[in-house]
């Protein structure tokens, strides 16, 4: 009754590659970061994953053409000392717990076969308040990767995130560890209230160091400024509202 | 544990047929349109589909006889240049995501076997407000069908419906496309607040052109007038309510 | 992953037997009626059905002994012209739609094997208001059974129940019909607000005629009087409340 | 689609062992009691159970290392007349009904193989109010175990808990009984509002008698005092609040 169909749009073989997961999540931080990297590195699509664990839904493109919701893999062949990269992106994660487990299990088996030896997952860490200077928090499957991450300005704070990591960003690491693939998670601090390009951009700064690649972040930073500007306007309105109200209180 | 039982009430073979899906949905537009076409074309039942993806429920007819909820297929042998038609109708869609995928997968395999080569799905596009002159919006699996639909007064608007198409109307197209069967969706604009025969009737106007059949829409249009009349009375009551309230405001 | 275990506490073979379903439902009408009949006819347990479709729960008896929740079958060998009876009772129905289908499918296959040729399901029909003189409404899989039921004072009213019959009482008939076993449902009208022995007692009056058995209903009728008495006291309190309030209105 | 992976961290064989279940539940009474016993007896881990019935989540330890949520077995080889013990603990129970059944079925088969012949489950019985002197209530699969429990100051009260026992504490007994393994449940009375070390400590007093082991409860009792102290402060605040309010009433 479970349906999962793999469409290989290009048959590829990678060497000692890193899987970078950037599925939707808190602040869409992971998705923004992965999509930006795909564009900047001109990574190419090699696989589409369709599954009954996704919603029964088609999306419609600008030409009116329907496409069944899916997850997709993009690859990038590292130049020089760079490692090969494989990106996991999509519009949805598996919709329930058993769907998450099933998709992640299948994916790990598949990417292992394709040459993946490390998994980095990208996500947001929601603080429930505005974050002017987001940090990048980390978690990893081994002490070696903790050390590696710390060199790339990733911070490890005891007890954070307290609830652990839920969804594909956690499960790919947890299940990968059981199967002997190591890796870590980069979490950009974010309010959790809106899509957060600033948080995605700090995650990418750490990721560049980890991957030894150099990419242009100006587009993300431009979008981050726009979001900041809107946020500040909202704060101004709120502040003046409060002032007016306290005026009334003084008068009354 | 999943139960699906097919009862063939007539063994038929179609040629280059079109599947027309009209299951319940927004405004019941698709169901009304398909049921009207079945009646006008005197299509005959050839299959009943029972499944644990439907609710555990029997319906009771006017003689007190119980019938397990199901989906049904009706067929119509095209005359002259008309193509053969197969209708999918019923009281329910599959109740959850995996049920939707499972039923649509099984159905596509089955209708392919029966001679279906094209899938048109019929539905409503809910606008959340009254729609005096509903348009028919389209989405399709290929540019060829987009062109075909445009000739039949179906409109394609970039970004609508923004959420794509959820349920059997979307899934039959998305899964069909993966299996090499092309098709499209006709969505009548509707408020989404009530059953909408007017929207069903504009969908049928486009569908007639696509199918090259000519059918009598007067019954649907009569029902549309009744719905309009009730809606207008409700609007009058609402308007006079507002006027009275503003009177009070003026006096006060 | 689905777990269903059958424990046969006695190996029996029935002849042309009727399955009587009395699982919990609206007003517990069906359960009360079936349990009363089991006691009066001194029917004996022959099977326990355990399943992961029931809640993960044990019940504790008066000696502190735990028992996993289950459904049970009791049998009665008809005397003279009476037909053999098999009762289906329990604390729970299957918890979700696929569980309901799975349990009913398995049960029908099993009772067919044991000699069941007819299925009568017992239930309540909730009216959402107090019902001083409940009627027994019917639904059946064939016209023959409709006729039979009418002779036993069962009423058939076009359009009631409008939503059909949900749960085991409906599904056993719907799935049974697909497998060539006919039967019907007896629904005692009930408020749906409380356990209703009066409704169970009218269902049993019709059932006695159908089965040609004669049983003592005095215990159920005694409990019905107690419920009536409590209901009347509640109504008195409510009425005097309203009177007091309207007094206040007059004074004010 | 269901994923369950067993990691044996040590290959052990026990003799006539007792399984002690202490998974999270009401007041975390069972978990506290089992964890305390594991520490005091220096029981060692022998198995990790990973499953798609648990949430798709990793927890992060103080070094930043991720671990997939799981259940774990710890063993203790009885000294002298003591029986061997096997502990079942973890952060979660199976998340839905079929997951509970599936995990408990698999676990019973596995621990039987490992030498378990008795199952004791530990839990809390929520009263919805503060419990100054919690008792230990019992339920069991046989009269022999009822007698055994009564000697260890476990009380059996007809009709309590009225809803039976839900979750692993009930299911392990119910399914175990079906498979010929007997056992019982020890439930410490608790408010159900907070984690309750006092209730865990009374459960352990009964359990010591049952197991013939002697352990130091001072740490649990210290934590119980802290919780009592906080509770009393809250009660004081509440009481003084009420007094103030009634003062106002007198004045007014």
Structure, described:
The structure is a homotetramer. Chain A has about 250 residues and is α/β, with parallel strands linked by helices. Chain A has helices spanning about 30-40, 95-115, 145-150, 170-180, 195-210, 220-250, and strands at about 5-10, 15-20, 45-50, 55-60, 65-70, 70-75, 85-90, 115-125, 135-140, 165, 180-190. In chain A, the strands form two sheets. An eight-stranded mixed sheet of chain A has the order 1-3-6-7-2-8-11-9, sandwiched between helices. In chain A, strands 4-5 form a two-stranded antiparallel sheet. In chain A, a hairpin with an 8-residue loop joins β6 and β7. In chain A, α2 (about 95-115) crosses α4 (about 170-180). Residues about 245-250 of chain A have low confidence and may be disordered. Chains in contact: A-B, A-D, B-C, C-D. The interface of A and D includes residues 97, 139 and 178 of A. β10 (about 165) of chain A pairs antiparallel with β4 of chain D, so a sheet runs across the interface.
Summarize this structure briefly.
The structure is a homotetramer of 252-residue chains. Chain A has 252 residues and is an alpha/beta fold. Chain A contains 6 helices and 11 strands.
